[in-house]
Write a structure and sequence with these properties.
The chain is an alpha+beta fold and 131 residues long. Helices cover 27% and strands 37% of the residues. The strands form two sheets. Strands 2-3-4-5-6 form a five-stranded antiparallel beta sheet, with no helix packed on it. Strand 7 and strand 8 form a beta hairpin. The longest helix is centred in the last third of the chain and has 23 residues. The radius of gyration is 14 Å and the shape is globular. The model has no long low-confidence stretch (mean pLDDT 92).
Length: 131
């Protein structure tokens, strides 16, 4: 049961369509989402990534017009973590919002570290798209 969540966000000086097009392509994950993957390959209807947690399976929301980048990450131990992510339009700019949920048994320090990793990932995404 989730007992706490926090929203980590970044504003990007690119349209939501541009941000979504880049961020929704799993092949781009290693460039900006180091917290999730250093490499990623497609295997059937899901992707397999080498992550800091070990090899994980990642299943993404279908391509959509609403900026939904939700994905499930199945950890090496078999637990699946649902990650809600949205690209929200703001004129010629956009905001990416990642809802980070504190999992059962996750201590405060681990939750804070997880939020810091997500923040760093979103900042890398911003840097790549604004370069």
């Amino acid at each position: 049961m989730t007992c706490e969540s926090t929203h980590v966000s970044v504003f990007i000086s690119r349209t939501a369509a541009d941000v979504y097009a880049y961020a929704s392509d799993p092949a781009n994950l290693p460039a900006w989402a180091a917290g999730l993957s250093s490499t990623i390959t497609r295997e059937g209807d899901h992707w397999v990534a080498d992550s800091p947690m070990g090899q994980v399976s990642v299943a993404f929301a279908p391509t959509n017009d609403f900026g939904v980048l939700d994905h499930n990450v199945t950890l090496p131990g078999g637990d699946t973590v649902y990650n809600p992510v949205r690209v929200i339009p703001d004129g010629e700019h956009s905001e990416v919002v990642f809802t980070l949920r504190r999992r059962d048994g996750m201590g405060a320090d681990e939750f804070t570290a997880d939020a810091s990793a997500v923040t760093a990932d979103l900042q890398r995404l911003k840097g790549l798209l604004e370069a």
